[in-house]
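Thanks for the sequence, V.! I ran YdhG-like domain-containing protein right away. Repeating your input here for the record:
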Amino acid sequence: MNKSKTADAYYAEPHHFSDAIAILRKLALETDAEECCKWGMPVYTLNNKNVFGICRFKNHFGIWFYNGAFMDDPKNLLENAQEGKTKAMRHWKISDISSIDKTLVRQYLNEAITKHKQGKVLVTSKKNDKLEIPKLLLSCLRANNLQQKFDAFTPYKQKEFCEFIESAKQQKTKLARIEKITPLIKNGIGLNDQYR
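Predicted structure:
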């Protein structure tokens, strides 16, 4: 997947959901949020803080609400972005262009902005959080001379690699995951970069 450097480039890329996300973009631009591009996709911010983003995938498109857990969600449309991992982010998945209810989209976008302005955002403290690298991953980094490459990742991406290894229950699964991530680390690619 190409990583767009601007929102314009993201929306211009040919995709079977291009027309659908263009509608969402038009609605997003009607709000107070400022459009930018982060992680290769359009993100809409207030005071440089993420409020929502528009995304497209193979089988669906939709809106990420960075603090969606604080939204009322009267239609029960929002899903936890990744159960057990994400705390506040919620995703509204839409499967086809005919399912876009512009009035409802406006309502949700404006509620996300209102909640943001009210300070309804997840606050996390990262200063005292020391990342504990699993022994298996440490061994891999040393054996393949990849410590410097691993250290170049953001703390968030480092944590993703660590959780990927630690979440495996069986040793053989952990080893298979080590084998999978070694070339990613070597090439400076984050575990979930393909989805960003």
